[in-house]
Backbone:
């Protein structure tokens, strides 16, 4: 029987010859990601941990990133509880505050490999489809159970094939592309489904694929995946992982998809997701001129070196508008160091940007850069829900790093292409 | 019994604002903030046995499970929706909160209608109309019937 990517992978992990959509299978994931929520997770199973211990010291990847450095006594205690847990149970893969955003770390440190299963108590765990892994978000309770048993159930999802055709035009990015797609298929358009990207994907770098896979959950997808090609293997080589240490999974030729969609990339223009949902997407030209009080560049969606390079190109020898604040978060310490080396940080600071520590920062409204009533923020993050950045009377618009950087100069949302050099 | 009616794409920030995710984890900490940015009257007036009727993609967004823990703790009998976001759906199974996916029932509901549920037999009566909804697979029912995932896991560990 011909199978899609997810069917093939779940069949293999559940020791089945084949599986069909809707089937429930038991799997042992390769890794379990948790972050600041690890404290709440282990507090659910204090007695069980004492009695049975953790299932495996290397299953968990724990990254402190959501509220870093601690913003209150309560969050400081959470971090301390997690450090104590890591020490007591000899957890092998722990990354303390300042190393980076969890999803960036999972990819950067080589935990995400083609053909592997990674589950995480964070909805953007779907990001590792960029590398050809199956990865998906789960809740805290399930993470607690996985720590104890190392196994869980998954329902085999239907698969959607998205064919990308043509070339993105100058000044356009993966973010514009994924916003365009989500605007088209809606926030629930891929509910419960595995999304496979096919077609002219050779123009998309690993960073681009990361952005696109990251936003899979914003259309309801269980996972979103790019199949392994030279771009994947070259990236893995660059972080010291040889081709012989993983086994990519490819869909069969006659696999059955519940839906096939095609997008012409050459037609896409700069896009913005308007309040208060990610699928409320419009071309920048429709809302150009709207004033903004805060600009945010970073997060697990767009905080990579290639993003910061574009931002620095636009802001070189420029100043941001006096009525606008610009917050920038490199997605990891590695990226931060790269940006320092290339002079990017200097450019951004001189332009008036404020550099925040590598973490989730203002994205979830728990600390740093919270908005006031009536304010508007233009952000490279992945969510613009009402109240998301700490204030329900504020507005969040989502766009590409180029659009956010160019708009910061004017204090208004603008098409970035006129600020970019060919 | 009161029926709380909401629309499509009710996301996790509306159900429980992100700013509380790392300071509120227990049911008592969660309850006062439930649906805070969606319906400020909810947490003060919700009663045991109430039902939520909602549109498409209920619970979309974050993986935070506080909305599920909170809705279970205040005694919501069931949520009837046109559809759910998948992480929310899993979280509900894991906490033993009953979710019913039945778009026809949601569409048939109008303000003031009475709702009757027969969860074991997959039947729902909205006003004068009767609908059925599919039963959960047995593997999943086992988790819900054990009283949630942690209770299920505990009994599995004891047997080993």
Residues:
């Amino acid at each position: 029987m011909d199978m899609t990517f997810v069917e093939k992978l779940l069949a293999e992990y559940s020791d089945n010859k084949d599986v069909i959509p809707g089937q429930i299978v038991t799997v042992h994931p390769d890794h379990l990601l948790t972050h600041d929520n690890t404290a709440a997770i282990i507090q659910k199973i204090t007695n069980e941990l004492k009695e049975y211990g953790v299932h495996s010291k290397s299953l968990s990847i724990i990254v402190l990133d959501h509220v870093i450095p601690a913003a209150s006594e309560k969050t400081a205690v959470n971090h301390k509880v997690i450090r104590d847990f890591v020490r007591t149970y000899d957890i092998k893969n722990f990354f303390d505050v300042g190393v980076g955003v969890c999803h960036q770390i999972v990819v950067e440190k080589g935990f995400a490999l083609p053909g592997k299963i990674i589950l995480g108590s964070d909805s953007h765990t779907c990001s590792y489809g960029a590398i050809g892994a199956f990865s998906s978000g789960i809740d805290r309770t399930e993470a607690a159970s996985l720590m104890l048993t190392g196994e869980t159930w998954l329902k085999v999802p239907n698969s959607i094939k998205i064919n990308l055709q043509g070339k993105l035009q100058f000044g356009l990015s993966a973010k514009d592309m994924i916003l365009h797609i989500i605007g088209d298929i809606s926030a629930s358009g891929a509910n419960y489904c595995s999304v496979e990207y096919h077609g002219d994907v050779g123009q998309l770098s690993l960073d681009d694929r990361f952005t696109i896979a990251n936003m899979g959950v914003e259309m309801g997808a269980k996972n979103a995946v790019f199949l392994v090609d030279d771009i994947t293997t070259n990236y893995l080589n660059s972080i010291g992982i040889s081709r012989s240490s993983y086994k990519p999974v490819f869909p069969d030729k006659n696999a059955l998809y519940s839906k096939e969609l095609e997008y012409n990339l050459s037609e896409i223009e700069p896009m913005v997701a308007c309040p208060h949902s990610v699928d409320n997407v419009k071309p920048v030209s429709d809302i150009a001129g709207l004033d903004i009080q805060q600009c945010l560049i970073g997060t697990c969606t767009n905080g990579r070196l290639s993003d910061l390079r574009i931002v620095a190109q636009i802001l070189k020898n420029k100043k941001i508008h006096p009525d606008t604040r610009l917050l920038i978060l490199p997605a990891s310490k590695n990226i931060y160091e790269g940006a320092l080396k290339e002079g990017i940080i200097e450019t951004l600071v001189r332009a008036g940007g404020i550099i925040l520590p590598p973490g989730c920062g203002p994205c979830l409204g728990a600390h740093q850069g919270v908005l006031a009533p009536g304010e508007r923020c233009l952000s490279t993050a992945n969510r613009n829900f009402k109240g998301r950045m700490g204030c329900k009377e504020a507005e969040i618009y989502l766009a590409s790093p180029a659009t956010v950087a160019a708009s910061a100069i004017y204090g208004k949302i603008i098409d970035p292409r006129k600020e970019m050099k060919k | 019994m009161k029926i709380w009616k909401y629309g499509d794409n009710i996301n996790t920030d509306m159900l429980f604002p992100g700013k509380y995710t790392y300071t509120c984890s227990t049911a008592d900490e969660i309850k006062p903030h439930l649906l805070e940015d969606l319906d400020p009257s909810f947490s003060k007036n919700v009663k045991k046995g109430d039902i939520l009727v909602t549109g498409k993609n209920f619970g979309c967004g974050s993986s935070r499970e506080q909305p599920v823990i909170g809705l279970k703790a205040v005694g919501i009998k069931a949520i009837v929706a046109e559809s759910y976001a998948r992480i929310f759906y899993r979280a509900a199974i894991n906490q033993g909160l009953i979710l019913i996916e039945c778009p026809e029932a949601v569409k048939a509901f109008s303000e003031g209608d009475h709702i009757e549920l027969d969860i074991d037999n997959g039947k729902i009566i909205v006003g004068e109309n009767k609908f059925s909804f599919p039963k959960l697979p047995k593997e999943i029912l086992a988790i819900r019937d054990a009283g949630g995932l942690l209770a299920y896991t505990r009994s599995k560990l004891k047997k080993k």
Observations:
- The CA atoms of residues 32 and 267 of chain A lie 39 Å apart.
- Chain A is about 30% helix and 20% strand.
- Chain A touches chain B through 51 residues (CB under 8 Å).
- Chain A has two domains: 5-14+23-264, 272-419.
